[in-house]
Amino acid sequence: MSGAGGRLMVYSQDGLGLGHLRRTSAIAGAVSAAVPGMAVLLVADSPVAGFFGAVRDLDHLKLPSIIKVRPGDWRPVSLPVGFGDVQVLRRELLRTAVLGFRPDLLLVDHMPHGAMGELVPALETLHAAGGRTRVVLGLRDILDAPRVVRRRWQAEGAMDALERYYHRVLVYGRREVFDVAERYGFPAGVTARLHYTGYLCATSGRALPSSRRGRDGRAQVVAMVGGGADGYELLRTVLEALPAVDAVRPCTATLLTGPFMPRASRQDLERRARSLPARVRESVRDLPPLVAAADVAVAMAGYNSSVEILAAGTPAVLVPRAGPSAEQRTRARLFAERGWVRTVEPERLDGATLAAAVLDCLAAGPRSAAGAAPPDLGGLPVVVEHLRSLLGARATIPAVVRRP
After folding, report:
1. Which residue, 81, 108, 186, 206, shows the most beta carbons closer than 10 Å to its own?
2. Architecture of the domain spanning 7-200+378-396
3. Is the CB of residue 146 less than 8 Å from the CB of residue 359?
4. How far apart, in whole angstroms, are the C-alpha atoms of residue 381 and residue 170?
5. N- to C-terminal Cα separation, the chain
6. Per-residue pLDDT reduced to its tens digit, 309-327
7. Mean pLDDT throughout 65-92?
8. Phi and psi of 129, rounded to 5°?
């Protein structure tokens, strides 16, 4: 093992959002805290790679940012060149990174082959070097509609990469909520390496405030849209709904636009909020306490936002993103079926519908009082223990069976 604590490399593709970056940053920070001297290299394409603050013994390697328009269709975020040129550049950067950093452990987020197969040359390089690097795939449980995942993973070589190169698959969820292996058609050999960790919450173990009422007695509503690139319509509708909510339950709203919302959209929200009991902010330094102190949270149905709301116990209305994948719709539906959240479909989103859903949440009170069985939110320490076990016992782990 190289260095006192070994070397961990993390691959995270999240060109126009915060979800994957927040999750991988939380894992990297937790591993760094648990394994003294661990050197962590986070390879990411987010334009705000350091958004979640500095982590001890961690540095970032920035890839040119790309965004998925639809399954199998990608484009550069900033560079005015063809996707093919950016793809070649990213592929070579990844291969060079594994050669130079020589990780003991590679944690791949979300895509076993990387975006459009860009990670495969790096994986093959590690295998050709003797296979000393343990390779782990970390999956949020819901990726897209099962038929889409099966088709794209076969066409792009993701399933082949998963069978050939990975020693362990960690699913950040619960099998009884979404059976990843069955829904996505994982081969038996891959299923044998698969472990469900519970939902991974970056606030795991933190004490959060219990007060849910503002100083003036008004109910507190917090609305958030992750990175914010496509969050304008939801936040505008929150402002449209606010007078109807305030008429029944006096309230104050905090709207978080995220760093990627276009400036003109953010300014329009600020203008609309001036005559309302609302404030608009790009972000807050520490989001979980704000969510925990709210009486209602309104959010899109991204993995991190949803799980952090569940961890806070705050009644929530989730409005899933309409596309390009079915991920958020599926999550919102499954969570609503278990009584964890309320949901409004994007096609039905208007001020009156959202106001009714928020008032229902205010009437019902905290989720813990509603009788719903609580979700398993202990994923982060479970993931850390899996990674520690791989770092500490590499020689005892069976080799991946390679297909000819």
Report:
1. 108
2. 3-Layer(aba) Sandwich (3.40)
3. no
4. 12
5. 29
6. 999 999 999 999 988 889 9
7. 88
8. -80, 5
Q: Tell me the C-alpha distance between 72 and 115, whole Å.
A: 9
Q: How many C-beta atoms surround the C-beta of residue 255 within 10 A?
A: 27
Query: Which CATH number is correct for 219-369, 3.40.50.2000, 3.30.565.10, 3.90.320.10, 3.30.1330.120?
Result: 3.40.50.2000
Find all residues with CB under 8 Å of 377, minimum gap 6, and list them.
198, 199, 201, 204, 307, 310, 311
**Tokens read off for 389:** 């076990």
* Paired sense of beta strands 105-109 and 73-76, if any: unpaired
Rounded to 5 degrees, what are φ and ψ at 271? -65, -45
182-233 pLDDT, tens per residue? 999 999 999 999 999 999 987 655 555 555 555 578 999 999 998 888 999 9
Token pair in block for residue 313: 């116990």
Looking at residue 373, the DSSP 8-state letter turns out to be P
Give yes or no for residue 401 having a pLDDT over 50. no
